[in-house]
Each structure stands twice: as structure tokens, then as C-alpha cells.
Predict the structure.
Amino acid sequence: MAVRSDIEIARDAKKRPIQEIGAKLAIATEHLLPYGHDKAKISAEFIASLASRKDGKLILVTAINPTPAGEGKTTTTVGLGDGLNFIGKKAAICLREPSLGPCFGVKGGAAGGGYAQVVPMEDINLHFTGDFHAITAAHNLLSAMIDNHIYWGNALNIDTRRVVWRRVMDMNDRALREIVCSLGGVANGFPREAGFDITVASEVMAILCLATDLKDLEKRLGDIIVAYRRDKTPVYARDIKADGAMTVLLAQAMQPNLVQTLENNPAFIHGGPFANIAHGCNSVVATKTALKLADYVVTEAGFGADLGAEKFFDIKCRKAGLKPAAAVIVATVRALKMNGGVKKEDLGRENVEAVKKGCANLGRHLENVKSFGVPAVVGINHFISDTDAEIAAVIEYVKAQGSEAFLCKHWAEGSKGIAEMAKRVAEIADSGVSNYAPLYPDEMGLFAKIETIAKSIYRAGDVQADKSVRDQLKTWEDMGYGKLPICIAKTQYSFTTDPNVRGAPTGFSLPVREVRLSAGAGFIVAICGEIMTMPGLPKVPSSEHIRFNAAGQIEGLF
């Protein structure tokens, strides 16, 4: 029998009206702002009314380093949420919104897969409720106001060589990484070098995902450093008087989005920072709202645990006061074989030795997650090509590491295919054994924080950074930003900055190319290796295959 595609399965979903999904969490109809029949935003007034309620248990789903073989982290997050509901628990899911960049580039969408998806899949992967457009508009409004201020006399004495606020768009476009703007004569302003990042790398995206309400949002937006004067003193967004209008543009975008899984369970999808160039977690407001409404909340952090989980623990949980109760690390036999040296075209053949060799990557992530005091199990996302011997090798390896691994068949079977792991995860979450603590204290120096992440999580031997980078960090410490956490931007494919180095390498150097202060979001970005904050499209982008079919249905999304 032919295997049905994700989009074919999603197309046949028996969706319930979004009001019914809200009712499962006791959200009254008047507190839902519907976008059609199957998605809605939740009102700020309702969210504020939940403050005194007790929180449910927070469960993180993370993964090994991604490979072309696929891991299925979002699919497992959705599956686990469905699985918890299947065994009689009251559970909700919290995911990030997909970016158009990877959707039209190489990665595809991010709505899960098989029979563990959130719907409406096409809407979620495309414009959804317009949050990313609002973030792009607010970001670029600030850009326009900076150049406008300079044009009309530059009362703030901005050094045009030191404008650090770049523009953004939600698309992969390498041609816009470095630009010269304001060309064309006196009427167009003062020419200067500038550039574009992808919207998910915007500090506005990070701020929206870390802000607790509109008041906090406006303060954080005002705290953005947009430029420096000749005396190196900072110019803030509030100095440009952009923070109020930006907040107005983002007011609806701040409200979490409610959708449903294929099994009609509630899912919050809100915010979308990438984990390789930003902090990689869904919004604090969505997570906190879900925790007030459900007994168990399953959320994910982007890419492998070296990036997403580390930032979840060290940035999101630290800033929001969250205390995760358990974690799941997703792996596939196929991906472990790739980490063990097998080429993609040979993954269909049994190779137990390669699985065992590749388990070193899984073991490193398992050890790292546990180092935060959070108990973790492994979810083996099942592929039909997996053999019993290969699966047994993973289970045996994880057991030797003092943990448990579960074969999960949610892609093909939905909730019943992950029920065993759901029961165990609920038991761990209920046991109260989690003793979460961040990796480093706030008081540690900024460069020392970078070294701590590099050596403790990546197992680097040293960190390489020019004197200019170290001096910049010292300047920020002197300005009062020394207690901020670090957000590492690096390749997701490896513990190193070389995407081709798989497994669990040790003793390598981590090169820090540049550091950026996100004063509004409240972290320092350390850009390592060749990672780009504006990705490019691949030779054959996914967009070449996306179109309407003869029946007027979208094809090519996955």
C-alpha cells in the first residue's frame, strides 16, 4: 500500500470548530478571536485572568543534531501531546510558527507529519494569522524611522557608520545580506552600508517571544539599541520614538494562536525564532497560558539539544521563571546511522555497528540535558526501514546511559503509537524529580559564559575570538549588560561550527566571529563560524515544487 503524504493526511482531517477546541481548555467563545473556522487568537484579557492558577507540568521535546535523514522533533511533540490525551491526561502542545524561508527553501514546513500533525497545515506553514508580517513591519518601521531621523537633521548625533539595526524579511535571500541604502541623490538621504536578516533572526521576534504582556513588550522594544554616536554612547529605539507605534503594530501578534491536532487536541502555535541564529523557542506568553489551562504542556526547542534545549534552559526558562519537569530527546535509527558514517543513499540497509557508533551523538545530548537537572528519556521515531536489531541497539545503549528509550510509532498510528512513552513521561513529570538549574550564573562574565557553553555543551577545547570581540563584550559589561545570558548562533548540524563533522567530537576550537547585543530581548548573540543570519536558497528550492493542482489544492508543502 502506498504511503500517504503529510499533506494528503492533513487534507482529510476531521477538524472541529475552533470554539470546541477552546472549550476543552475552558476558554469561552468571547475570549477567542477567530481566523476562519479552525484557528483563533486568545484575548489578552483572558490570559491576564489566569495569573492565580496553578501551573501544569512542562515537558520539553528536543533532539539529536539534525541530519538529511530526518529526526521528527515536531512530529514527536504533536504525537506526545496526543498520546498524553489518549491515556486520559489533560494536555496541550506549544509550538513555534514556521518561517516562509525554510518552507520555500530546503527544510519544508513545521506542522508535524503523518498522523501526528497540527492543522490547518497549509495555513500554519504559510501566512497563518499574520504574526510574522506584523513582526517584519514593526522591525522595518524602526529602520525607516532611523533613516528618517538622520535625514531630518540627526538631532541624536547618530554616527551613520555605527547604525546596527538591519532590515528584515521572512524569506531566504542571500542578495540582501549586505546592501548600500539611500542611494540616488540628496532627496533619498545619506548613503550607508546596511543589510537584511531573515525575520526569525529579528530582535523584535525574540522580544515578542520573551515579553509577558503589552507593557513589557513596549519597554523591551524601547530598550533596543539601534545605533551608536561618535562617542560610542548608544541610541535606543525609544530615543527615535518608535516603541509606541511598534507596539501598536504588534498588539494582535502578541496574542497566542490556538489550533488543533489531527486528533482534535489543543495546540498553541506562537512565535518562531530559529535556534541556530536566535533562541529557538515558542513564546513565553503561549507557554505560560498553556500551563494555566492544561495539566501537561509539551513544547519543543529548535534543532538539536546543543542549540534549542540549551537556549530553552538558559534563556527562556531563566527569564520566564519556568521549571521543566521532564524532557524527551528524539532520535531516528536513520539519523544515528548517518552519525555513524553511513551515506544517505545507504540508510535503507541494516547496519547495527553504524547505529552503535552514531549513538555517541545521542549520548552527548542525553548527558547535556541531564546536566541541567532535568530527567530525560529517548523517543525513537520509527521508520519502516528500521530493523529489530538496530532498534534494540539504541534501546540497549540508552539503558547503559542510565535512561530509557521508547519506540514511537505516532507518525503511522497517531496517539496509540506513542502511548507507552506518554505514560512514562507523565510518571516522571508527576514524580517531581526534576531539579532544573541553568548552566551558568547571571554574574559570570560574558566571555566566560561563551566558554562555559562551548566547553560544557559542545565539548570544545577552546574559544577563539579576536581582541575586538573581547573588548566589545567588556564594553557591554561596563554598560550594565554583563548579567545577560548568551545566545550562540552556529550551525545546527554539528557540535562544532563545521556542519560536516558529525558524531560527538571533542577538543576542537569554537571561533566567535561577531557579537551582537540584543538589549531589548535580553541576551548577547555570539555568531560562530560561517552561520548566516540571512540564509540563502538551495540549488533546487522547495518553492519550485509548490503549486495548485487541478482540484485547486496546494501541492508541494511538506
Summary: The radius of gyration is 23 Å.
